From TrEMBL:
Organism the protein comes from: Simplicispira hankyongi
DUF4143 domain residues: 234-383
InterPro entries on file: AAA_14, DUF4143, P-loop_NTPase
Domain AAA: 37-172
Name this polypeptide is given: ATP-binding protein
Top-rank taxon: Bacteria
Keywords in alphabetical order: ATP-binding, Nucleotide-binding
TM stretches of this protein: none
GO molecular function: ATP binding
Length: 445
């Protein structure tokens, strides 16, 4: 097959396989184990998807797969501008010309990054799975195709692995401070240090590029603001050809400036109308969906079996990263209580839980009801400081009231600070945040 891109593709293959493996912070991303599927690595821009592809490549190499059996190829290269779906066969062609002993004889692995820039790539990827002995990983995010659409475009032939900003454990690992034993087994000094680091994590967030004490607060804030601007412009405004970008920005300010708060499209729409802004409710619903598709934020509904109750009650909205809170909070500072709540939600989602919030008939609210993949249910209340007796009593009462509707659920109170002697009625479980967040993914101590 003749192609003007053949020499470029061949050289990129040679360069990628000759390049030293980068030294990267290991990520704790859950990978589905389903044979015969491609794996689509998805997530918000700058969360570390490309780095994760290299991590997967390095892990296979460490297990004994030679470098020639592992190919990382990025399509984000100006020399490949104009590449068509028909040219993608050149990639396979050139790879097996370089390594003919691998064709059909051994299973090689392709890591195709930013493949969505090539129109028609989906047919090529499905054909690779059907006709070649290749394990396939895909990733990408752009205005042409959002990262989640990389998976859906494969029509059932791909599973998703979601890469988020660093978890608390990953942030500690990145800084070289991950504990080498369970957090409860650390001494008092070690636990105090962890609490200090958690406060910094709640404030600064987990985007890899924003880590490190060397970055001042203003630089970090501008970096994160830039991330949001790119998502809004490329992944929402350009991608969906929005005609009211200012309304989108007002919506984002409302959502990210009110983390963990109840949000109602109806109320926001009424507020805009009172200011003379002509926009339809359907447009606002679509904007919220676009923001979630771009992984900028997530919203959770009321935990109930009633579809009508879910629809009529407001949703609670959380940013993808706590570092974004100070960018949009009018005070310029994050609410640490809401930041801790956000981090707990992200940890539940990493564990594969379906999450909603609870509002009891008596008017009490519990932050999260989590239905875990194994069938276990958790009621999780998050509180920054339970030193005040009235605060503790309110949190306990909410859990007890919620359990009347969820009798099989474990009740957990996750807190940052507490008095030395803290007691709650059984079977409520007390969890210090630095311990709970560093538990293994199965939830065991």
């Amino acid at each position: 097959m003749q192609s003007q891109f053949r020499p470029i593709i061949r050289q990129k293959i040679l360069d990628a396989q000759a390049a030293p493996l980068p030294s990267l912070t290991r990520r704790d991303v859950w990978l589905p184990a389903v044979a015969g599927k491609a794996l689509a690595v998805i997530g918000m821009r700058r969360a570390g998807k490309t780095s994760f592809l290299w991590q997967l490549l390095a892990e296979r190499h460490a297990l004994g797969v030679p470098r020639e059996g592992l190919l990382y190829f990025s399509f984000e290269d100006e020399r490949l501008a104009g590449l068509q779906a028909a040219d993608l066969d050149v990639l396979v062609d050139e790879y097996f010309r370089l390594h003919p002993q691998w064709r059909d004889q051994r299973r090689c692995t392709f890591f195709l990054d930013e493949i969505q820039v090539v129109s028609g790539w989906e047919v090529f990827a499905r054909r690779l799975l059907d006709s070649e002995n290749i394990e396939l990983f895909l990733s990408g995010s752009s205005a042409k195709l959002l990262s989640r659409e990389v998976a859906t475009s494969m029509r059932g032939r791909a599973m998703e692995a979601v890469v988020t900003p660093f978890s608390f454990r990953e942030a500690l690992r990145h800084a070289g401070q991950e504990p080498d034993k369970p957090a409860p087994n650390l001494g008092k000094a070690g636990q105090s240090q962890l609490e200090h680091l958690l406060l910094a994590y709640l404030r600064d967030g987990g985007f890899p590029e924003a880590q490190g004490v060397a970055m001042d607060a203003r630089s970090r804030r501008e970096l994160l603001r830039g991330y949001v601007d790119v998502v809004l412009l490329r992944d929402v405004i350009e991608r969906h050809n929005l005609s009211q970008p200012q309304v989108l920005r007002w919506l984002v300010q409302q959502l990210l400036g009110n983390t963990a708060g109840a949000f109602s499209i109806n109320k926001f729409h009424a507020d805009l109308r009172s200011r003379g802004v002509p926009v339809g409710k359907d447009s606002l619903h679509q904007m919220l969906a676009h923001l979630e598709d771009a992984f900028l934020l997530s919203s959770i509904a009321l935990a109930t079996d009633s579809v009508r109750r879910r629809q009529v009650n407001p949703r609670k909205v959380y940013p993808v990263d706590t570092g974004l809170m100070a960018v949009f909070d009018p005070s310029g500072k994050p609410n640490l209580g809401h930041a801790l709540e956000t981090v707990v939600l992200h940890e539940l989602q990493r564990r594969g839980a379906a999450v909603g919030y609870v509002l009891t008939s008596s008017g009490y609210e519990v932050d999260f009801h989590a239905a875990l993949p194994g069938g276990e249910q958790w009621l999780v209340q998050v509180c920054l400081d339970v030193s005040d007796a009235a605060t503790l009593q309110r949190e306990v009462r909410a859990l007890q009231d919620a359990r009347l509707d969820w009798p099989r659920a474990r009740m957990m109170l996750v807190y940052l600070s507490a008095p030395p002697a803290l007691a709650v009625p059984a079977p409520i479980e007390l969890h210090r945040a630095i311990h709970w967040l560093l538990q293994p993914m199965d939830g065991t101590s």
